[in-house]
Write a structure and sequence with these properties.
By secondary structure, the chain is mainly α. The chain is built from twelve helices and four strands, in the order αααααααααββααβαβ. About 60% of the residues lie in helices and about 5% in strands.
Length: about 325
């Protein structure tokens, strides 16, 4: 039996927040990390066969979509290569909860801060490298620069905030320092990683996908939205977990717990938040963004109006 299911698009569309959330919830499902190589290869075979001949598997449309999301969680979208498990979308929750748990438990001494931020940015660099473009891959020098810069800024922010707050602020406020450092690191890391787009611009196109030019203005908007999304992913766990821990540690049973026990509790809490926060942050803005022609660079405006005088909006890909 053949069908016309379009698996080149998301299952639920991209028009509403809920549709995007359901898509990213399936894509970042951490249980996909437990899939064996055989299961991943079977999913790839199902997707490849459907693309070739349009015939649904014996499990029907539901089985096709399940295979599609298992496939997309583990294989590079452009090269088709099986990705390192630590850099996969499905590892964002397990990896994020382990590293954030360490950041939240060990944040007072300069050595703890440096090692925690180094671990966090190492993970980010691995994710960026694993998901780099297959068509125009990021040079290793760009990834390394972003890695070193973000680690330095995050470490400096943590140490600086600890010194500023010192004994003048309540202990709970000190627990928010790791979040501030992660937010600053994202503000540095993402523009560094996408510096080429800031210089040359992102491709803008019409509703039919025809290229109209490149716009650094659109690139700045895209990078701003991606940065906000990344911070929103970290915010629930890193802001609510300290409040929870502050209350737990006032209970007799938890007063004498050590750092590693505290780390374990915080890791579990953060993991629960990340299961919902990762797809939330990814779904916050549509991938396909629109921008008014009036807001583009003067030269690009003139070029578009010369060929398409009636056009008011153009579109671009935001990225993740």
């Amino acid at each position: 039996m053949s069908n016309d299911v379009d698996i080149t698009k998301t299952r639920w569309g991209d028009d509403t927040f809920l549709a995007r959330y359901r898509h990213f919830f399936a894509l970042t499902d951490p249980t996909n990390c437990l899939k064996t190589n055989h299961e991943l290869d079977v999913a790839k075979a199902v997707v490849s066969k459907y693309k070739e001949d349009g015939v649904l598997p014996s499990s029907g449309e539901e089985g096709l979509w399940n295979a599609k999301y298992v496939h997309d969680s583990a294989f590079h979208p452009e090269t088709g290569d099986k990705q390192n498990i630590l850099g996969r979308m499905s590892f964002q929750v397990p990896g994020g909860m382990l590293i954030t748990g360490i950041l939240m438990a060990f944040y007072k001494s300069p050595l703890e801060i440096f090692l925690g931020q180094w671990l966090n940015q190492s993970f980010n660099a691995l994710v960026n490298f694993t998901n780099r473009s297959g068509d125009k891959p990021l040079p290793n020098s760009v990834i390394l620069t972003a890695y070193i810069t973000a680690t330095s800024f995050a470490t400096a922010t943590s140490i600086g905030m600890n010194k500023v707050l010192g004994s003048r602020a309540p202990p709970l406020v000190g627990r928010f320092v790791p979040f501030m450092a992660v937010a600053v690191a994202n503000m540095v890391n993402i523009p560094c990683m996408r510096q080429q787009e800031l210089k040359e611009g992102v491709v803008v196109y019409d509703e039919d996908g025809n290229k109209l030019g490149n716009s650094p203005v659109a690139a700045r908007t895209a990078i701003t939205k991606v940065t906000i999304s990344r911070i929103c992913i970290a915010a629930p766990g890193m802001l609510l977990t300290p409040i929870l821990m502050e209350r737990l540690e006032k209970m007799p049973r938890f007063r004498s717990i050590g750092k590693w026990q505290s780390c374990a509790i915080q890791t579990v809490c953060i993991g629960c938040f990340l299961v919902a926060a990762v797809p939330f942050g990814c779904a916050l803005y549509p991938q396909k963004q629109s921008i008014s022609v009036d807001k583009l660079e003067t030269e690009l405006q003139e070029s578009i109006r010369e060929k398409h005088p009636e056009r008011r909006l153009v579109y671009y890909n935001k990225g993740l």
